[in-house]
Amino acid sequence: MAQVNYFLTEEQQMIVDLARQIAVEKIIPVRAKLDENEEFPWDIMKDMAQADLFGLYVPEEYGGFEKGCFENCLALEQLAYGCIAVTTTFAASALGGYPILLFGSDEQKARYLPDIAAGKRLVAFGLTEANAGSDASGIRTTAVEDGDHWVLDGTKQWITSGGEAEIYTIVAMTNKNKGARGATSFIVEKGDQGFSFGKKERKMGLNASSTRELVFNECRIPKDRILGRKGQGFIMAMRTLDLARPGIGAIAVGLAQAALDEAVKYARQRIQFGQPIISFQALQHMLADMATKIEASRALVYSIARTIDEGTKDTAKISAMAKLFATDMAMQVTTDAVQILGGYGYMKSYPVEKMMRDAKILQIYEGTNQILRNIIGQALNKEYAKK
Amino acid sequence: MLKVDTEKCTGCGECEESCTFEAIFVEDEVAVVNQDACTLCGICVDGCPEGALEIHVGEGLLTTNLSSWKGIWVVAECRSGVLAPVTLELLAKSRELAGELDTEVTAVLMGHKIESKAQELIFYGADRVLVVDHPELATFTDEVYGNILADLAKKENPEIILVGATAMGRSYIPRVATILETGLTADCTGLDVRAKDRALLQTRPAFGGNLLATIVCPGHRPQMATVRPHVMRANTPDPGRKGEVIHILPGENLLSHRVQVLESVKEQAEGPNLSEADVIVTAGRGFEQEKNVDLAKELADLLGGTVGATRAAVDAGWLSGRTQIGQTGVTVSPKLYMACGVSGAIQHIVGMQGSEIIVSINKDAEAPIFDVTTYGLVGDVKEILPLLIQRIQKERGL
Amino acid sequence: MKLEIGNWEEHKDVNVLPNFKFRISSFTLAMNIVVCIKQVPDAKTVRFDTEKGTLVREGVEAVINPFDFHALEAGLQLRDTYGGKVTVLSMGPPQAENALKEALSLGADKGILLSDRAFAGADTLATTYTLAKAIEKLGSVDLVLCGKQAIDGDTAQVGPGLAVRLGLPYVTCVNALSVLDDRKTMHLRRVNEDGYDMLELEMPALLTVLASLNTPRLPSLKGKMRAKKAEIPVWGASELGAKPDMVGLAGSATQVVSTSVPSFEARREMLEGSAEEQVEALVSRFKEAGIL
Q1: pTM, 2 dp
Q2: ipTM of the shown complex
Q3: Active-site residue flag, A166
Q4: Inter-chain contact A25–C224, Cβ cutoff 8 Å?
Q5: Across the interface, do C221 and A22 touch by the CB < 8 Å criterion?
Q6: Alpha-carbon distance C234 to C141, whole Å?
């Protein structure tokens, strides 16, 4: 049966094969255990490092492969086929690394990117606070200049890989009066004086990923840890998210594909009324819709990622579309997969209940899907004003 | 090379279908061989309804004067002062073969302070026992055991040498066969002889038991095989049997070895070891939690068996890696194999499908384990095992 | 009656084994490791035809023998620790090049394919001769590593046979190993039915390894890219200087005369009813079989 041809190059196919191999051999056998024990997947992170995956987006001069958003999406989709909690940990490291890549000085790049590319140190991205979720201008964490140092005070909330990562790119206010334009980005390292971690959150899903508070209590960091210039923090965060959002779309596609595979496999095996339940049209239609939506999402994510890699400017709208459409789809497909497995689907001994629990986060993190609709809507308003 | 007799070939295409390597195909109604792709496996030769295919063998290094090689040897294995059950099984089989070949059965007994076992070997069917008792043989080394056996074989010219396919046998017997430049068939499950040319027909599983191949060693002597424990039946010992015991003094030159045994450690396994157990109860993913695995242990104890594990049960940390059955674990063939909560991944099935009776308990009636099952029970192991244990206890009056 | 046997010197004289010559490299500087791998049908894709008694070719994928991954991993770890080179050898049809490329993607330094029409139909006797000739041609070796057995043939004979051909000491079924400070002596754990033996030997040597020895690494993206471009030399009988009557079918002592596929269908009985009824039925089957 013909499959959609996305015209991958040999190298891109290698990335797909390698990420799939990690998902099948390393992630799937342990995903239920990691979920159950809320365990951070260090072993798998080491496997990914050994397989060179952390270097995908890093320039060659720093030991990476200098690949684009598209290759990153290819890897994330395959890893997510195994487990999106593990994949989120991997993706969060890229999210934390992008600000250094995009805005770091040559000296900062040389200091951090080689270790990041080799997977020796994980990175985390710290934007969210208790009162600054969708509204980033609510950030309360402050950074004050003190001689050769910056002094940080405040608490970041729900930071993926908090406590496990060694490098943190965070946003703090350097001028509260300027609102969003008073925000600045900094690099903080685990072990910096006055930098500690709060409690580990317990979650509905995504349990293999660590989610913690970053606590800055008169945290002193050297002057040269500032990323870019003062006041660029918010714009940096937005640029970073624009680059990362298609990746979340790709994670959604991988997860939905895994749910569909489980659903079809089950529907072909499960006998009721003397026949496999896949022979019932009600189920066939559900599966057909799932498969079609997955393919549509994949096509959308791939083409948007490729557009970004062409160097296109101002990608906020299309990046948001890639995440919005694919993650809503993944929620629906994983829910339908549970429905198809019926009572078994609701049981922990089958993998689809975890997929459904995990899927929900995709509609929430890296910009809720409501915020993404705002971004798209505002972009439309702007576009049509020009016409 | 593979040759087609074009007179006989009808172009039926059986060979084309049977070839695993796409090396033979029908063109203009006659079979054509792609000699580059052909591996000479012989499957098409076997399957040709017209007998039109033949493999031509070149001149190999054949053993000269085949008829000067006489007698069947069984190489005994004695661990911790006990003869391995497979040795006794082989003696019974050898008696049968010796009858057909009109020859005698010799047992070779190597070790230290094992002389008392010689009589036992006679009771179980040996006509003659060659005893090599030496302090250097107290611990097993491939080199010394291999050198002595090879040397003995060169002096005595047996036509057949049979050894248990134990860890030890499978380790040093290839050494002997290579020194003697003869064929060796590993891990056989069936033995027979073809009277007309005194060929030993050696049947062995390949592809993890999915394929049974019958192998001969036509031009070389001795014909050597290691034989899987537990597939043949030992005779009841006959204390009245008489035989000759010959003591052999090995030359010092055979006793040097480059591998030193520092320590031999027995691991206290519960029940008999897997490869020699009559009953194995295997725990798989279906047990869901470690504490439930006790049910498998209880059932195994009750049936005088031992517990095996699937990869999933080992990965979950419920059972030790050395109990893992399957492709990269142990291959077993007990009388009764109970697959409990085992779905039957092919990697597991290849390690146990040679078992005599396979009972499978799984809640998924479509699980692949049922494809190789003798008796299948559909249900949750956590429900069925306690019932079964209770029922067997009742049967035993416990 | 007493009989004296054995004379190692005489033993050597009557020995028809070719005398292989290879240099033992100066291991204090670097370790020359040879890993022998085999390409086998992937158990997950193999189907069998019960009527014809043969393997069904369609859809079968070829993979590296599972045990050989562990042998390769052991080699790579030793190289990474002590320096040196891992050379991977495989005898097989031209497609076995893929297995060697996969080994390169995992980090092996060099792959060599032993492929020749004349090698076809080889049993373990002919295979060990061919591999020994190839190692002789390589010229220098400290350690030869093999998987415990191949999952298609399941013989476990190539490792020991190859060691004898090369005149090397060997240990089978290794599941732990260490190299001592002299970088010459190895301590090994060999698993048997009752437990294990702790052994000591000096390199050069040959080991066959169990899956429990290590966890094989994944390929890396760099490795995959390198493997894609790598040229795999192919050595045939003439490159090896192998005697034609010692390779392939001609050099084999054993021959397959027939194959069959055991069928399980016929004997299968699904017990029916409630859990209690199924257990009752099983108990009566156990009684019939003399188990109870």
Answers
A1: 0.84
A2: 0.86
A3: no
A4: no
A5: no
A6: 20
